[in-house]
Amino acid sequence: MPRLSSLFSPKFTTLLLGASALALVISIILFPDLAFQSSLQGLQLWWKLVFPALLPFLILTEMLRGLGALHALGVLLEPLFRILFRVPGIGGFVMAIAFTAGMPAGAAAIGGMRKDGQLTRDEGERLLAVSHLLSPVILISVVGVGFLHSAPAGLALAVIHYGSALLMALAHRLRAERANEARSVYDTQPGERGFLSRFWHTLEDARSRDGRTFGKLLGDAVSSGVQQLFVIGGYMMMFSVLLQAIPLTGMIDGLTSIVVAVVSDIGQGEAASLLTALMTGIIEPHLGAYAMTQQVGPPGSASSLGYAALSALLAWGGLSTHAQVRSFTAATDLRFVRFLSARLQHGGIAFVLTLLAWRPLLQYFQEGAAVSTWAPIAAWNGGWSLEQNQGWPFISPMMLQFGSVLLVMLVLSVFAAFLFRRGRGRKA
Question: Where is the Nucleoside transporter/FeoB GTPase Gate domain (predicted)?
Fold first, then answer.
């Protein structure tokens, strides 16, 4: 970790970003037509898939923070998330948004919470690691039904994606800094006031400290959400151009020659296609998922190794989203190197889990009623296309899913608080 920290020092990061910007400018000058078409592809992906998925949740996060509801919700979720992950209850809201809207919505929320002092550095870094997820819409609808023409395959990928993230979160919990985890973020003891009393007290206190009128708050929330989305769109367009420029440098050809020389039973064209798909997935998750699904065979008959590589790329998340996370947390002391380490861990766990559980999970979902559950999206069985499909119709289902996830968390948290209070009473 110390070596990685020195590698990603501010000076090196500045140098790397400067070199990337220079490479981007050179690519645009040398290949203007290609740069234009690539940027349009990134813009299309942003407008049709990312913008509708993130905008409601970015606005909602800012609104709830200003109204004090975000702080109060943390009180209700405190028992569950302190027990499970050793983070404040407000982390439940982050996880609900990350699970519903996908990356980088969690990072946007965590950056604001850390600046407000609602999370310690260690808590913020662990939440940032586990909240960098793809949404069920992407995994099941786009990758599963759209790219692979198989809802069971999408469900299996989703189970592995979220299961590996949970395993990583539990591993990080065991290494949590106990000195910082012992306190509640609200600095209140359970015996000081009742559960609901603390909820109302926190709500009123946070609302009074914010002080903005509802109209002002709404305007700020919309402005902030749109501004964040423009940042995301800019990164997506930039990395789309870089992605198309890489093959022109001869890098893929050089790597292909090495792979063909080392692996005797793979052809030149097959190696080039596979390396291009892997490179695409390393840089951009959505385009990488599409490229990788074109390399693996049908879910029922293909080797698990190709799907393990696909799972690892989905867990990695792509350098494009990593840059977005960096921009949302740049004003905080959250260490980016720890986030990158978590991405490698998530990818490794997802790779191993896919090798072990791909066929059993696929068979289970194929034999069960899972396909009928996702019948409303079966119209995409012809394949996903940015020209024909978009994410706007999914806004209402995603908001319903978000509310359902929060409700389940609240019920479990109340149950956990009841058990804790009951156990404390018996000891007394």
Answer: 49-145
